[in-house]
Amino acid sequence: MPATPLPLKDIHLPEAIGWWPLAPGWWILLLLIGLLIFAVVIWLRRLARQAFVKHAQKILLSLKTTSEKDNYQKLCELSVLLRRVAITVSPEEEVASLTGSAWLAYLDNSVDELPFSKGIGACLAEDPYRQPHWQLPLAESEIAALFHLCEQWLKSQKKSRTKNKSLYKKKPHTLLSPNSDFPPRR
After folding, report:
1. Which of 77, 142, 146, 141 is nearest to 107 (CA)?
2. Across the chain, how many H-helices and E-strands are there?
3. Which of 64, 68, 92, 116 could pair with 104 as two cysteines, CB 3.0-4.6 Å apart?
4. Is there a contact between 53 and 158 (Cβ–Cβ < 8 Å)?
5. Cα(111)–Cα(68) distance, integer angstroms
6. Handedness of CA 69, 70, 72, 74 (dihedral sign)
7. pTM of the predicted model, to two decimals?
8. CA angle at 97 for the pair 92 and 102, rounded to the nearest 5°
């Protein structure tokens, strides 16, 4: 009997496996990468904030120990330093326009009681903007208390975990760089 070919079709190979939809393991890996990126961003923000506040503390210490400036000049430079730190560590829209009692209330939010509004810190609202001969100079004990209060405020800024949107909108190293003329010379 002669062999007759059977009417069979050729072998069909399955289609190549595509990338989509992803297997569950890939979804988990993507999620872990996203969480890792988020954690690194948060850590870098915290690190930058702490470094910035630490640099401001060094400036405060050098201002405190200098004997070349009188108390009025120290008060003016202290006011500028607090304003720069506040603008850097808080959203600029919230802090930049604060003056007078609103500025003091902002400073009071980070420390116990109300030392800026009702204590020695109240002189930061208006005294730096007055002419030196229009006001009585601060005594050494008052300046020392003001420096202590500002040190407490800076420590609270270093520990603060508030949302810090403005820190990465600008370059912090340009605000308090060692090469900058800070505080401004008069």
Report:
1. 146
2. 7, 0
3. 116
4. yes
5. 30
6. positive
7. 0.67
8. 110
